Amino acid sequence: MARRYADRQSFFFIGRNLSYPTALEGALKLKEISYIHAEGFPAGELKHGPIAMLDPAIPVLAIAPQGGTYEKLVSNVQEVRARRAEVLAVATEGDEEIPALAEEVFYIPSTLEALTPVLAIIPLQLLAYHIAVERGCDVDQPRNLAKSVTVE
Fold first, then answer.
1. Does the pLDDT of residue 150 top 70, yes or no?
2. What is the phi/psi pair of residue 40, to 5°?
3. In sequence order, what E strands does the chain have?
4. Is 137 helix (H, G, I), strand (E, B) or coil?
């Protein structure tokens, strides 16, 4: 999957409720180590600007675990698909709706809704890592970043 997306110049990450901060973190990790422009958005705000940027060149990574806002997020993914953007998703094992809408799906185990960000960030970090490696980036020493524990 990393090979397929390593040449992209931008990514959008979307999520609702607890998945929105996960989308932000996923975008941050991708830009930190692969130097790809990436932004995280609350999925419910797509129509307030970001939707204008959607096209086939910008993949959208949807954080879509089962939970209270799942159906609304599915609706957002359908809007993304209507604009011909490729969709990657993080979904709960057993989900049968998201795979029909996404080119690629990372599955996480079912858990308490409050714990889904802990599980959902793992495939996003791994994707960022593997894309960075595919691009020939030094994942151990990303440019212009300093460890916060060593900087005063």
1. no
2. -105, 140
3. 10-15, 37-42, 60-64, 87-92, 104-108
4. coil
More confident residue, 48 or 116: 116
CA-closest candidate to residue 54, choices 75, 84, 74, 31: 84
Its pTM stands at: 0.92
Tell how strand 10-15 and strand 37-42 pair up.
parallel
Residues whose CB is less than 8 angstroms from the CB of residue 79 and which lie 6 or more positions away in sequence, other chains included: 46, 47, 51
Going by the DSSP 8-state scheme, the letter that residue 43 receives in this structure is: G
Mean predicted confidence (pLDDT) in 121-136: 97
Total residue count of the chain as it appears in this document: 152
Say if residue 146's pLDDT is above 90.
no
What is the rounded distance in angstroms from the CA atom of residue 50 to the CA atom of residue 60?
Answer: 11
The terminus-to-terminus CA distance of the chain in angstroms comes to 38
CA separation for the pair 100, 116 (Å, rounded): 22
Phi first, then psi: give them for residue 30, nearest 5 degrees.
-65, -45
Quick one: average pLDDT of 26-53? 94
